[in-house]
Amino acid sequence: MYAIRADHAFDGTRFLPSGATVIIDGERIVGVEPARCELPDGIEVAECSGTLLPGLIDCHTHLIADGTFGGLERTATMSDDQLDGVIIGSLRAHAAAGVTTVRDLGDRGYRTLQFRERPGLPRVVAAGPPLTTPGGHCHFLGGQVDGDVARAVAEHGELGVDVIKVMASGGFATPESDQLGAQFSVTELTAIVEAGHALGLPVVAHAHSLIGAQNAISAGVDGIEHFTCLTDSGPRVDDSFLDRVAAQDITVDLTLSNDRALHSAMTLAVLPPAMAKLMEISGFDSFDAFYRTRLDVLARLREHGVRVVAGVDSGMGPIKPHGNVWRSVGEMVGAGYPLSEALASVTSAAADACGLAETTGRLAVGCSADLLVVDQDLAEDLDTLGSAHEVVIRGARLR
Fold first, then answer.
1. What SS3 class is residue 387?
2. Which among 135, 114, 90, 80 has a CA at the least distance from the CA of 316?
């Protein structure tokens, strides 16, 4: 048994005015007390003048992708041992950044399932290969469905996935897919949702196109990833559409958290051809100009009462390295979210979206001891969230 005492603390929903002393026994939190509380003799105490909070959660990662351009596509020809090596490296990068849980939304061969509770590595919530159409987005991961979509969901369930991921539109990692169209009909998506829910599994939809997002909403998905809402004249996110998302209580993950320092190098000349074409059609002269419109949508989601969680799409290129989800907190604050709400999007709200409300994401008795300590008061210096001082994963102190 040991304890971590910090002058400042965020418990997953709010800042604790008296800081906190969190007592850990094995893998669990067994006490949450004010920072200056008296402890029984014999309990080792680590003192910190900074902030103690739950470990971060990245709601959208691809552990088999190594953070280089084309990394996900290259997995199609990699051996299982090679894939496992990348997965371990990705998880270590997350852990070093204070990420203690990840939701993997697309692997090959269900490789991530065996890493769900590896000692010293972040917990993994795994989708396995995403469901897609023949030749559709990320078909090379092995999740192509041609016919009985409910049976495909059942197969995923039999292999033990935690969530069903479906590609409602094309995507940029698969240039031949239709980024502006729909890969599944509303009828097919509804069958996927019903089959997933019958197994007790949430269903999230990848949707870059507006029609893909519309179809996913009509089918009753639990979450929408990217939510780019592209049309042949650019992104279109109407107020009435956001109201509909809020009314159906659908969680949105915009997959932001980019390292914007690298955006200047992402000129139209170096972007994937499909993405560069869409930038030109939409009237954007740079990738960062497009990204700024995404931040505008982030602000509007809050105005309309849409629940937002943070995921990076980590691993999908240099601007989206593993361990980058901390950046989303600053983006949300910049978009008008209170700091506590922004931090909840990477802790308690993220845990809720991952089906882990009673497991992690909170400083609470009975929860897993998944903790992050940073050196400063986050209310005064948010950038320090990107510099982990100490990370605890299921009770194991990493540093």
1. coil
2. 90
Superfamily for domain range 2-54+360-397:
Urease, subunit C, domain 1 (2.30.40.10)
- Mean pLDDT across 285-292: 90
- Per-residue model confidence as pLDDT tens digits over 210-260: 999 999 999 999 999 999 999 988 899 999 999 999 999 999 999 999 999
- Kindly give the pairing relationship between strand 20-25 and strand 2-10: antiparallel
Distance CA 275, CA 356 (A): 35
Q: Please give the Cα distance from 170 to 132 (Å, whole number).
A: 9
Q: Return d(Cα 183, Cα 180) in angstroms, integer.
A: 10
31 close to 22: Cβ distance less than 8 angstroms: yes
* DSSP-assigned beta bridge partners for residue 232: 234
Residue 274: pLDDT over 80: no
**Spans of all domains in the chain:** 2-54+360-397, 56-325
For domain 56-325, give the CATH superfamily.
Answer: Metal-dependent hydrolases (3.20.20.140)
Among 397, 393, 399, 385, smallest CA distance to 52 is for: 385
> pLDDT, tens digit, for every residue of 324-348?
999 999 999 999 999 999 999 999 9
Give the max Cα distance, the chain.
68
| Rg of the chain in Å (alpha carbons) | 21
